[in-house]
What does this fold into?
Amino acid sequence: MARHATPLNRIPRVCRRFHAIREQLQWTQRDAGQHLNVCSSLIQRIERGQERPGWRVAFALRNEGFCLDWLYTERGPMLLSEPTPYSAGLFPLYRYSITPQQLHSIRAQLSLSQRRAATMFDTTAATWKRCESGQLEPKGTLLEALAERDVSINTLITGEGRLFRGMRFGSQIELALADSGEEGARRDVYTL
It folds into this structure.
């Protein structure tokens, strides 16, 4: 059975940007898998738009000197201005991770319940709860949703910098929440 290519306009932008990074590095899909410490089939699924780059791929790209906010939102530069310890050759691998406490902190700073946070970040309440309790690693779709709502993925992964890009505490953000059983969406305003 022949596999048909996904039309470019149907591939999510984050996946197209991931492909652009791989091409800039002149890596084959197999090379990318080896450098990013994932299987080459994951690289293929990302580039076909079947998966989004998750946090393991994200921190590996961060180690290569790429800006994660650019990867997920195309905001900011593609390359970091400061080399990471890994790309500068100072350490064999500089590991980053997203902790359950960071997800709880995002939710707490926005004064959201887990259900409201799940709605805001396009996931289910059960998935948010499992990520926040450490039972489940955040998937690429959650990282993409966080980035689209001005959460800095660079800061989330490294712990360095401001968590909310372009927002200051006291800023208000408006969020449309569709409550079940109601016509249309209710708009709520949250203050950081």
User: Anything to note?
Assistant: The chain has two domains: 1-97, 100-136+162-191. The radius of gyration is 18 Å.
